[in-house]
Design brief:
The structure is a homodimer of 299-residue chains.
Chain A: H1 19-22, H2 46-55, H3 57-72, E1 78-85, H4 91-97, E2 107-111, H5 117-120, E3 138-142, H6 151-154, H7 160-179, E4 182-190, H8 193-204, H9 215-221, H10 224-238, E5 245-249, H11 253-271, H12 282-292
Parallel strand pairs in A: 1-3, 1-4, 2-3, 4-5
Helix pairs in contact in A: 2-11, 3-11
């Protein structure tokens, strides 16, 4: 036996087991069995979590920069992260504390709201397709095409046979973009209804946060069991080796953030991007630059 | 006399004078008189500059969050920052060290490359218009429609009468979007040719940076005087009260970054965004959330 963990992404005392393995949805998954207050893979506390989040920023950035760099010379790899959750589960915090660590050039963020009239006049994937990230980018969907099988199912905005059709359409779509070089990671941030209530009340108690509160959010909250059922079905029907689901316990914000950070790092490590070779002769170019220093331009 | 500076943006010992005033292009401007190695407004050194950059991040973020928040309730204000420079002048560093401080939700980054065949088949503003930021956003153009009067003039890609037409077209365009609520700030990062050479050589000496080097960049470098003339003319003809130009000395990277950060903060302070009032009754909503805690959902 060795002290060295098998996977480089867990080579830190913070993680006792790789969260990207622990949180990945497998056979026989039941959302009901996931404790939103748990912290799989670590025994650390909030202070250690925040330190880990800061510590791993450099690792994340270097992988992203390599991914971006290799695309400039033709590599097609890119990553798409889909974030889904009930309101106040912490999507915004994950964006602002994990994805904000990336260089702005490498991040393509798409926040999907309720569809517009023009969007509703098309198939549900019409507005999604143009937002698929290009080579070298990390795409982030804050809500996504999964809204079309979550709120649309729970609210009955589409009939059951249309919802059923959509699971297949999503699978076809994700298979197709995976074939084009898009690595897909789908993440549900999972809070308890009690924790959601605490967060909604804290928004209501702070006038500077009122803009984040929408009375309609509470109407969705009252349909909690229906939403959990819709998540369970959507996850079951759309998980795939090329497009896995991860359910991240999110009652502790620090845990959700370090877990998502580690999942993204692990997926980038699987892509294993490399600094591209130069398509020019560095010695020749160096001589050209040096020669140009002899030029005398008007001051 | 008082110790309090007049403008809140200079309420720091780092700045002895407001760089957003010092670097703003005024009457009789001559690019030739700007020393790329200077640091107007401060006597501080690099260490103090990096500390200032970190210290002011919170101020920048809070202004941005307010700008974003007020747009959710209908305010139309947004900011567009246009970045132009010779290669290796530090645009990337400004993006990664200043604009990376913003929440990803609030930043709309558009990097304009050489126009595609489809883009060349349209007027030069055709590809620019869709990238104008929406309400609440900070738009950042890394290169822009100014390429169409810089490289296109220097290289003769368009005839002189077409270049002449474009200054007027740019002024009309910027006036129109300003009228729609877009505050426009145009920034030239100004390096010396000697500093550029040093940076190009340092890229060539580091294989991990080779992807950032393009042999074509050196061809542009050899036209330095022509580029400076093109910048001088473009700045003269397109500066306006609603769309000012700033020329930022950029031989010292830390200076360029804190100066751009302070210019952006100053412009956001002029917009003076406010937390929006709630369009619901917080007490009523709080009672609704609390009532929902009594519900018993299946575990």
């Amino acid at each position: 036996m060795t002290e060295q963990p098998e996977h480089p992404s867990t080579a830190t005392p913070f993680w006792r087991a790789d969260p990207s393995a622990l949180l990945r949805v497998g056979d026989g998954f039941s959302l009901r069995d996931v404790d939103p207050g748990s912290a799989p893979g670590t025994h650390a506390d909030k202070a250690a979590g925040l330190a880990e989040l800061a510590r791993s920023a450099q690792e994340l950035r270097e992988l992203q920069e390599k991914l971006f760099a290799q695309s400039r010379l033709g590599a097609m790899d890119r990553l798409l992260v889909v974030l889904q959750a009930m309101d106040a589960a912490g999507k915004g915090g994950v964006v602002n504390h994990v994805f904000a660590q990336l260089e702005p050039y490498g991040l393509a963020l798409a926040a999907f709201k309720a569809p517009s009239e023009a969007e509703r006049a098309h198939d549900f994937l019409w507005r999604i397709e143009p937002r698929v990230p290009g080579p070298g980018l990390i795409g982030l969907f804050d809500r996504s095409h999964y809204e079309d099988v979550l709120i649309q199912r729970v609210r009955g905005f589409a009939p059951p046979e249309e919802i059923a059709r959509r699971y297949g359409a999503i699978n076809d779509f994700e298979r197709r973009i995976a074939d084009a070089g898009v690595r897909i990671v789908k993440i549900m941030l999972h809070v308890s209804p009690e924790e959601q209530a605490t967060r909604l009340i804290s928004r209501l108690d702070d006038p500077d946060k009122h803009w984040k509160y929408n009375p309609g959010d509470l109407d969705e909250r009252l349909l909690w069991p229906e939403y959990m059922e819709a998540f369970q079905i959507a996850i079951e029907r759309t998980r795939a080796a090329h497009a896995p689901w991860f359910v991240v316990p999110a009652n502790r914000k620090w845990y959700a953030r370090v877990a998502v950070q580690r999942i993204v790092i692990s997926e980038l490590q699987r892509i294993d991007p490399q600094w591209p070779d130069a398509d020019f002769d560095p010695a020749v170019e160096r001589a050209r630059v040096e020669a140009s220093l002899g030029l005398h331009w008007p001051g």
